[in-house]
Design a protein that fits this description.
The complex is a heterodimer of chains A (211) and B (423).
Chain A lengths: L1 H21 L3 H21 L3 H26 L11 H27 L10 H8 L19 H6 L9 H12 L1 H22 L11
Helix pairs in contact in A: 1-2, 2-3
Chain B lengths: L2 H36 L30 H11 L10 H17 L10 E3 L2 E3 L9 H22 L3 H24 L1 H7 L4 H11 L22 H9 L1 H18 L11 H4 L9 H26 L9 H4 L5 H26 L7 H27 L1 H31 L8
Antiparallel strand pairs in B: 1-2
Helix pairs in contact in B: 1-11, 1-13, 2-11, 3-4, 3-11, 4-5, 5-9, 5-14, 6-14, 9-11, 9-14, 11-13, 14-15
Classes of the chains: A mainly alpha (211), B mainly alpha (423).
Chain lengths: 211, 423
């Protein structure tokens, strides 16, 4: 069942990628890219990374690609379909992906040289074990009552339906371990946004009064 | 996977999609009858079963006050000629209506319709997919329906539909931001993205917009005030939550392209908007998509702010958890609340006039975006009170006030027309 879902979404993702290059109409290409992103999101969700998968759709398929399509439609790039590519650009288009592919293969090869990574199945028992890392204790070292515990602990040890709180875990990692880089990134993005606004804002010259 | 769960999932998918589709048709009849009441008309109240075309003498009139009208509407749409103009981009023209309906129906997969039902010792959640990213899933999939509308406008290869599509695209992207930001205080308060857990929390501690009871008892009893600090904190939190609720509900209107934000299909300017070139069932699919989005939007508002399936007032805890009739009762309560919101949507459509497009964009980008952003910090201040103390909250509040005043000044400058003196 899981394998079937993997192959389905992997196929969608690859097919989207191939169509993106093969189709000549820009809008079709952009939609093929959306298809590819949706397939990728499916793969993430298959790995129990719901948050990453959903954000993949929300940010890339739902926001960025919509802007792409918006721009393409406004520019009305119809002559794109008849453009002939120069042989040099085709060559570059072949060589650069090949380099990337070689790099990916190298990384995979390097990963396999060591011990085979053992992935444990995520079940109720293993979640209970990992929940021990997130227990909140009082001053005497005793575990606090359940209502005082963190959301991660509560979700991992929920009696009716324990679930992997991947969203909370990502938040925990980002804000506990990488808080400073996150703040710097936020500041950089803010600066970039302000820069774009300043650069693109035309200064209005007062129109001469006609009356 | 357990066989029980598999069968339960299949039944849930069939039942909940059935419920949503039923609600879509109920929306149609509500819209027509309610608008008739508002405009002092009668509305469709006597749809008959046309036995006369089968050779009988009289049509059969059922005494149900025109409830069969959606069936007649649906039949009319199916039987009409399905005309595809010659100048359209065929593939996208056919794809667009599908892309509107499918996301709208997919989003209801994470909505908890009722309390978990106990079957053979296992509790089965009354949501098709009990995901840990509920609201995000809805936002993500709903954002895909932009493609349908935009493609419809573009593929029609005709001026006014194109304007409609572009308008819809810009409007939905803009209001997605306000929608996402406005729900952050709510999620900060619950600390979880699982809609099922959010509702369970509200069963125990009062609906988000109605914190009248908690573990201790009702607000009038002393049990409520056992922990006075957290009780006061909860009541203070009502300020950001009410702001969230207003922004969220209004943004849902804009996201579903409903009046007063239905600029993409504004018939006084754009003939019919993005679906001008569509006919027959393809046209009906756009309407189904709009109504399905409305149903899911109402369901999301109810789940986040009004306690989802909970009856409230501590009654849920008295009922035996997991019994099948309790689950069904809760489904009924949930659908009742959703119906209320659908009526609210209809009421707004027939009472509030349409916005102008620049007003719409200003509301989204200048008012709601900033308000939602400030609201996030306001909620954070109230929630952080136990850890940063009263001085921390006061300093934060003063800073926030200064920022708010500055923002309002900047926003006022932005909305002023630069050529006001030149005319």
């Amino acid at each position: 069942m899981d394998t079937l879902a993997f192959y389905l979404f992997a196929f969608l993702s690859v097919a989207g990628g191939v169509l993106l290059v093969a189709l000549r109409n820009p809008v079709s290409s952009a939609l093929a890219m959306v298809l590819s992103f949706v397939g990728l999101a499916g793969l993430f969700i298959g790995l129990n990374a719901y948050f990453v998968g959903i954000v993949q759709i929300l940010v890339y398929a739902g926001a960025i690609m919509v802007l792409f399509i918006f721009i393409i439609m406004l520019l009305d790039l119809n002559d794109e379909e008849t453009v002939k590519f120069r042989s040099s650009s085709v060559l570059a288009g072949i060589i650069i992906p090949l380099l990337l592919l070689a790099q990916i293969l190298g990384v995979i090869q390097a990963g396999h040289q060591g011990e085979e990574a053992e992935f444990e199945e995520i079940d109720v028992a293993s979640m209970k074990v990992s929940a021990e890392k997130f227990v909140r204790n009082d001053d005497d070292g005793k575990a606090l009552p359940r209502s005082e515990q963190s959301a991660i602990y509560k979700s991992l040890t929920h009696e009716k339906s324990p679930k992997l709180p991947d969203t909370n875990l990502i938040g925990h990692t980002i804000f506990k371990s990488y808080n400073f880089p996150l703040q710097v990134m936020g500041a950089l993005l803010l600066v970039a946004t302000i820069g774009v606004v300043v650069l693109s804002k035309r200064t209005h010259k007062q129109a001469p009064s006609e009356s | 996977m357990d066989t029980t769960l598999l069968i339960a999932a299949a039944i849930k998918i069939a039942a909940f999609i059935g419920i949503t589709m039923t609600f879509v048709s109920i929306c149609v009849i509500f819209e027509r009858r309610f608008s008739a009441i508002i405009q002092d008309r009668v509305g469709p109240n006597r749809t008959m079963i046309p036995l006369s075309i089968l050779g009988f003498k009289k049509d059969l009139a059922l005494p149900i006050g025109g409830l069969t009208q959606p069936v007649a509407d649906g039949l009319k749409f199916i039987l009409k000629e399905d005309f595809t103009p010659s100048y359209v981009r065929k593939f996208f023209f056919w794809l667009a209506p599908v892309l509107v309906v499918v996301p709208a129906l997919l989003t209801m997969a994470v909505i908890p319709f009722g309390s978990p039902m106990e079957i053979g010792g296992t509790f089965i959640p009354m949501a098709i997919a009990d995901l840990s990213v509920g609201p995000l899933f809805i936002f993500a999939i709903a954002s895909l329906s932009v493609y349908g509308i935009t493609l419809a406008g573009w593929a029609s290869n005709s001026k006014y539909p194109f304007f409609g599509g572009v308008r819809a695209c810009a409007q939905m992207i803009s209001y997605e931001i306000a929608l996402g930001l406005s729900v952050i205080p709510v999620l900060m308060f619950f600390g979880t993205l699982n809609l099922g857990h959010i509702v369970e929390e509200q069963v125990a501690n009062g609906w988000l917009l109605l914190p009248l009871w908690n573990d201790g008892g009702f607000i009038v009893s002393s049990g409520y005030w056992d922990d006075p600090q957290s009780a006061i904190q909860r009541l203070l939190l009502m300020v950001p939550i009410v702001i969230s609720f207003v922004i969220f509900t209004t943004s849902i209107f804009a996201e579903t392209n409903r009046m007063p934000f239905d600029l993409p299909e504004c018939e006084t300017e754009l003939v019919g908007g993005y679906h001008t070139e569509y006919s027959s069932m393809k046209f009906a699919l756009f309407f189904m998509g709009e109504y399905a989005a409305m149903v899911v939007g109402s369901a999301l508002i109810v789940t986040l702010f009004l306690g989802g399936w909970s009856i409230g007032f501590g009654i849920d805890n008295l009922l035996p958890a997991g019994a099948w009739w309790v689950s069904l009762l809760h489904i009924g309560v949930f659908l009742g609340k959703v119906t209320f919101f659908i009526l609210f949507f209809v009421l707004v459509r027939w009472t509030v006039p349409r916005f102008r497009y620049d007003q719409l964009m200003n509301l989204g980008w200048i008012v709601f975006f900033e308000a939602a952003l400030i609201n996030v910090f306001l909620a954070a201040l109230v929630i952080a009170y136990p850890s940063i103390g009263l001085t921390g909250v006061l300093i934060g509040f003063i800073l926030l006030t200064v920022v708010t005043i500055l923002l309002i000044k900047v926003a006022k400058g932005a909305t002023e027309k630069p050529s006001a003196t030149a005319v």
